[in-house]
């Protein structure tokens, strides 16, 4: 699964004795210091990543600039279905990144959402 968010950056934390390692979306940047800010759900506020003792580094994420409806496209995998057979899922949406890349996002029969970048092919509307 690709990481997508609005800023195009992720904060990586190694973990502590009481908290596991984690990846958190960078929510914005402190205008005065330039430090990345993440949402602290316990405090209900944004905090600088440097306030966390287990902050490791920042990594790039795909910055989403638009979401476009799936438009009838489907993703097809030749051996991901039951008994390693074929699987076809509807493309729920296309996430468009700041670099102009469109990533198909699918939803399965259980309502789980994932990207379809590993699909063997994408089937346009009206094609079997």
Give the arrangement of secondary structure elements.
Elements: E1 4-5, E2 9-13, E3 22-25, E4 28-29, E5 36-40, E6 45-48, E7 55-60, E8 62-69, E9 74-77, E10 87-97, E11 102-107, E12 113-115, E13 121-123
Parallel strand pairs: 1-8
Antiparallel strand pairs: 2-3, 2-7, 4-5, 5-6, 8-10, 9-10, 9-13, 10-11, 11-12
Order of helices and strands: EEEEEEEEEEEEE
Radius of gyration: 18 Å
Helical segment count:
0
Give the biggest beta sheet: 7 strands, mixed
- Strand fraction: over 45%
Helix content: under 10%
Counted beta strands: 13
Measured distance between first and last alpha carbons: 26 Å
User: Which ranges are low-confidence, i.e. pLDDT below 50, for 5 or more consecutive residues?
Assistant: none
**Class of secondary structure makeup:** mainly beta
What is the arithmetic mean of pLDDT? 91
Shape: elongated
Region (Disordered): 105-128
Tell me what the structure shows.
- By secondary structure, this protein is mostly beta strands.
- About 0% of the residues lie in helices and about 50% in strands.
- It contains no helices and 13 strands.
- The chain has strands at about 5, 10-15, 20-25, 30, 35-40, 45-50, 55-60, 60-70, 75, 85-95, 100-105, 115, 120-125.
- The strands form three sheets. Strands 1, 8, 9, 10, 11, 12 and 13 form a seven-stranded mixed sheet that branches. The chain has a three-stranded antiparallel sheet with strand order 3-2-7, with no helix packed on it.
- The chain is elongated and about 55 Å long.
- The mean pLDDT is about 90.
């Amino acid at each position: 699964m690709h990481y997508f968010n609005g800023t195009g950056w992720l904060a990586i934390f190694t973990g502590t004795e009481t908290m596991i390692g984690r990846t958190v979306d960078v929510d914005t940047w402190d205008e005065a210091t330039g430090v990345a800010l993440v949402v602290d759900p316990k405090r209900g506020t944004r905090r600088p990543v440097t306030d966390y003792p287990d902050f490791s580094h920042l990594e790039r994420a795909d910055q989403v600039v638009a979401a476009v409806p799936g438009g009838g496209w489907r993703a097809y995998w030749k051996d991901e279905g039951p008994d390693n057979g074929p699987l076809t899922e509807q493309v729920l949406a296309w996430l468009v990144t700041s670099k102009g890349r469109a990533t198909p996002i699918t939803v399965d029969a259980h309502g789980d959402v994932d990207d379809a970048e590993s699909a063997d092919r994408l089937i346009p509307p009206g094609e079997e």
